[in-house]
Amino acid sequence: MIRSHTFYTYRLLQAIKGFETINKWAAFHHETLDGRGYPFHLKDDSIPLGSRIMAVADIYTALTEDRPYRKGMSAQEAVGILSSMVKNNAICPYSVSMLVNNIEEIEALHRDVQHEAKRTYDYVLEPVK
């Protein structure tokens, strides 16, 4: 089921005129440069830059955010994993280098957005408690 979300994203957004680029970025963000990704097993230049950027952002966020079942990794640990994925030709080296070159700004923004999201979440759930 988890792997199917990108296929269903593709099918749903395909029906919306003007969303062609957004559709590709969203639907292809689990594709890998070596062709072992999903849902379409695209590789190399078949994967748009927007999808490559989304892939790196998605992986970085998944690694660094706290989850109910584990604490998030440090930025340095996450960059180590991303660098390994670049060496294995899974993700875009350019996108990873842009992340690394802007890590302090990205981390500050990430903290602010996460804090605001939690505040909003708590506010919305307050009446339920």
From TrEMBL:
GO terms for biological process: cyclic nucleotide catabolic process. One of its GO terms (molecular function) is cyclic-nucleotide phosphodiesterase activity. The keyword Hydrolase applies. The keyword Zinc-finger does not apply. Its EC number is 3.1.4.-. SUPFAM superfamilies: HD-domain/PDEase-like. This is 3'3'-cGAMP-specific phosphodiesterase 1. InterPro entries: HD/PDEase_dom, HD_GYP_dom. Residues 1-115 form the HD-GYP domain. Transmembrane segments: none annotated. It holds the Pfam family HD_5. The lineage of its organism: unclassified sequences, metagenomes, ecological metagenomes. Keywords: Hydrolase.
